[in-house]
């Protein structure tokens, strides 16, 4: 690339860094065609850089003044795990690819090196960095903790009234308050009714009734292929990637996952990779007309309605 293209690249990159909130962690990786030199620079490079600094290296170090440090110059490794590029004839090797990270995360970086044996279809080596990360979840709008505190405060108030009435010898008020609390308590009812309206008490009978109910709920009038009049049945066109993407976009976040415990957010983060995998699965189901066995298994959590008295 010529000097003008390089300058435009750094200008665009600087704009992205400036627009990033200060609390966020910045990680930038790629081939910079830069050699930053073997002399360490406090806060930016470590002691394990190869070669002499070039002009592109000066520009990269200038950009690192944004409180960034170069991770793969901070760990002692064999030279073959420091080189990031090898010429086609194998005669020349350089360290020109880097992973930059926010300086406040420097102590968290556990490792940075190349994987020379990785088949990545390039004359550049696979460069990796390892550091722990915990994804932050979005706070829910509901405040169950406040509700619990209010409930505890109410119960403590009721108990204090009973205690005061007992200490003062107010027997009538004491019994009245106890009776009031007893009337507001209702025992849990774990029974359900069968088709005839009779209560089922045994666990196995309850499970059997739930199975009957769900089978009736989701039963549909379907016609078997063997029962057709002999005419040729043509399948409709298969699913499209655009349909998979649209379906993923419609899925809400922070919802309970299925029995495989894979949240919808994971598919959204994977983007096109997830779309391709899901498309292949759906097309296979479409062609074979067979559901995967584990797709047929569901977990039902019955939530009883509020009882009326």
UniProtKB/TrEMBL annotation:
Organism, scientific name: Rotaria socialis
Protein name: Endonuclease/exonuclease/phosphatase domain-containing protein
Domain Endonuclease/exonuclease/phosphatase: 13-124
An annotated Gene Ontology molecular function: catalytic activity
Domain of life: Eukaryota
Stored Pfam families: Exo_endo_phos
InterPro entries: Endo/exonu/phosph_ase_sf, Endo/exonuclease/phosphatase
